[in-house]
Amino acid sequence: MKHHIANRAATALLCAATTVIITGCSPDSAEAGAKSTASATKTKHPFDTMTPEQIDNQAREAVKNATSMRITGKANSDGRQVEVDLAMDVRGSCNGTVGNSLGTMHIIKKGSLVHVKAEEDYWRATFSRGMTAEQAEEMVALFKGRWVKPPRMMSETLGRICNGFDVLFEALSPASDGNSTREADATVGGRPVAVLAERTTTQTATVYIAKEGKPYILRGTIAGGNEPVDLTFTDHDKPVDTTPPPPDQVLDPTKLR
Hints:
By secondary structure, the chain is an alpha+beta fold. 27% of the residues lie in helices and 33% in strands. It contains seven helices and twelve strands. Helix 1 runs antiparallel to helix 7 (165-172) and helix 4 (120-127) packs antiparallel against helix 5 (133-143).
């Protein structure tokens, strides 16, 4: 689990984190205590006998077979911060929001069909490049608060946001270099997780791997350095809702004069 892989995850809007383990009851009598100890032994988690590298391998295998997931959180790459809440699948479909210094954009993509809806500031920043202030404001008035079906080239560009599933998986399942350590277990979203960390002199990259169900990565963070990351992964294998917006709410710019 190399920290530079986590940086790639940030750039591709990915990563994940989680924490903790299960605790049991403590009966009063010595005899009951012995039974409790025996019970705890029986319920020992398979991760408890694995090396960090072996746990990492389990997570990588789970990631390879996932069909979809939802990514939420923040990432910083090359001095630019991105906020994301995006469900995406292996077919390149997606539904969610991506925000940066220009504003927040909601995107729904199914196949090659793309619809976007953005805040007023986003459109203003977009149209201010190459237009007069008056022209830009006229376009903002048309686009704000409405779903837009972009022209083909713009659709292809925007659609790339949803085409990073393979890159995401590669970044979330790096081959271990043997330097990661097993930290204290924790919980993420109420789910127990095993925590693996890798440290350098400037930053710490941490991933949180589910201990219940499939060993998916549930959260990933990078602390320290110039590119902090905190991304959470949920809704694994859940179908992505790609229902397009109602036609009466969609603006087709190609039909504008």
